[in-house]
Design brief:
The structure is a homoheptamer of 96-residue chains. Chain A has 96 residues and is mainly β. In chain A, 6% of the residues lie in helices and 48% in strands. In chain A, strands 8-9-2-4-7-10 form a 6-stranded antiparallel beta sheet, with no helix packed on it. Strand 1 of chain A pairs antiparallel with strand 10 of chain G.
Chain lengths: 96, 96, 96, 96, 96, 96, 96
C-alpha cells in the first residue's frame, strides 16, 4: 500500500459486487443509510486522547468491514478504487 | 453472528410483529419518536473515555431492547434484517 | 415495571388530568415550553462521567416530576402510557 | 415551595409590574434580548463537573435576580406564576 | 452598582458618543462586526473550570473596554443604560 | 498601543498594499478564503486550559502574520486601521 | 520557506498535474469529496492538548500528502501556489 493514513483514519479497498455476494451479507439499496463492504489495507497510528495517550485502532489490515456509504474520500491507485475514512465511520468487522 | 460491531455499537435483530405482541409492549404508530423492539445479537468492545479507560456496554447479547426507530444502519444477512446502532440509541432493556 | 432504562434515562408514568389537578399544580396550555407531570417508575443505572465515575440519578422511583412535554419516547404497556426520557429533561421533583 | 428543581435549575417567582418598579430597575421593552426580574424560591442541588465534583449554585433562595425572558418553563401553582430555569440563564443578582 | 453579575458576566456602562470621541478611538459604523466602548461597573465571581477551579475575571471595575455590539442584555437603572455580558464578548481593555 | 486584548486575542495593524508587495507574498483575490497580512501590535495574556494552566500566545509583538480576511473586529485609532482577532484565526508567521 | 505556520497547521506546495501523474495515484474528478496531492514544506509547532501537553505533528517537511480539496487557505509566494491547512485535513502520507 502506497498510502499511510493519518491519526484514526484507515484505507479501505472497496469490494466489487461479486466479492460481496460471496460473503453472504446483503446491504440493501433501500436501506435508510446505505452501508458498504470493503477490506482494510492500511491503518493510521491511532487517535490521541485529551490526556496525550495514543489509542491504537480497533480494525486491522486484512479485515473485512462494513462502513457508511457516504463516509470518506475516494482515491484511485493503479486502477483500484480505495476509500480513506475515519475509523468511527466503520460500523462492524465481518467475521470470515 | 458474522458481524463484530466496533466501539459502542451493537447489532440488533429486529423483531417481527408477532414476536413483539407476545411481549405485551405496544409501541404506538402515533408516537412522537417511533420506537422499535429487537434482540441484541452482538456487542462492541466498548466506548473509550477521554482518560483512556474502556467502558464496556450495558446491554448484553440475548437481551430484548427498545430503540429509536430512526437510529442505525440496516444490514441483511441470510434473509434476516439486522440493525447496527450505537448503544446510546437504545432506550431500555425489556425484562422478560 | 418491565422496562429497565439505560444510562441516565428514566421511565415515567404520565399522570391523567384528574390525578394532576389533585396535586394543585397547574401546567398552563399557553406556556412557552409545555411541561407535563408524571411519576417515576424506573431509573437507569446512571451517567458515566469522562473520568469513568458512574453518577447515580437524582430522581427516585415513586417521585412525582415535571418534565418538558416534547422530551422522550412514548411506550404503551398493558394500556398504560409511559415515557422514556433522559434525566436532564426532568425539571423538578414535586414534593407531596 | 412544592417544587425541588434538579441539578443546576432554580424556581423563580416572576415579579409583578408594581413590585418591579419599586426596585428602580427598568427592563426596557425595546431591549435586544428582553430580561425579566424575579425572586428565587427554590434551588437545585448543583451542577456535576466532569471530575465528579458537585458545584453548588451561586444564587440563594430569597435573592432577586434578572434573567433572560425567553429562558425556562412556566408553571402555575395556586394562582402564582413561576419559572423553572437553569442558573446559567440568570444574568445578575439585584442587591436590595 | 445595584447588580452583581453571575459567573463570568460583567456589567458595563455604555459610553455616550461625546465620552467616546475623547478617547481617540473610533469604532467605524461600517465595521464588519460593530464594536462598542464602555466602562466596567461590576464583575462576576469568575468562571468555574471542569476541574472545579474558579477562574477570576481579567477585567476590573473602572476599566474601559471594547466589546461586540450584538453581545449582552440591556438594562436601564435610574436613566442610565447598562449591558450585562459574558467576559468572552469583551475584546480588549483600553489603556487610558 | 492603547489596546490590551483579552485572553487569546491579538491586535493587528493591517498592512497597506505597498507594504505587502515588498514582502514578496501575494495573497490572491481569487483565493477560496481570502487571507490578509498584518503586523502584531499587542497580544493578550493567553488562553486558559480546562486544567487552569494559562497558555501564552505563540505570536509576538512585531511579527508579521497572515490571517483569514473575515476574522476579527475592526477598530480605528488615530487614522490607522487595526483588527482584534483570536490567535486561532492567524494562519502563519511571515519570516522576514 | 518564508512562512512558519501556527499550532497544528502545515504549509503545502500543491503539485502540478505532471508531478501528480508520476506518483501513480489518480484522484478522480468525480470523487465525492475531491482530494488533492501536495508536498509538506513547513509544519507548525503542534497542537496543545487540554492538559497543556504539546503534541507534535505527524507529518514532516518533504512528505507527500493527500488532503481534502476544500480545506485550507491559498497563498502565492514568488509565483508558486501554497496552501495553509490544519493537519486534521490531511488524509494520508504517500510513500515514495
Amino acid at each position: 500500500m502506497q498510502l499511510k493514513p493519518l491519526g484514526d483514519r484507515v484505507v479501505i479497498k472497496v469490494l466489487s459486487q461479486e466479492e460481496k455476494t460471496k460473503g453472504g451479507i446483503v446491504l440493501p439499496d433501500t436501506a435508510k443509510e446505505k452501508p458498504q463492504e470493503g477490506e482494510v489495507v492500511a491503518v493510521g497510528s491511532g487517535r490521541v486522547l485529551e490526556n496525550g495517550q495514543k489509542l491504537p485502532l480497533e480494525v486491522k489490515v486484512g479485515e473485512r468491514v462494513i462502513f457508511s456509504k457516504y463516509a470518506g474520500t475516494e482515491v484511485k491507485i493503479e486502477g483500484e478504487e480505495y476509500l480513506i475514512l475515519s475509523e468511527r465511520d466503520i460500523l462492524a468487522v465481518v467475521n470470515k
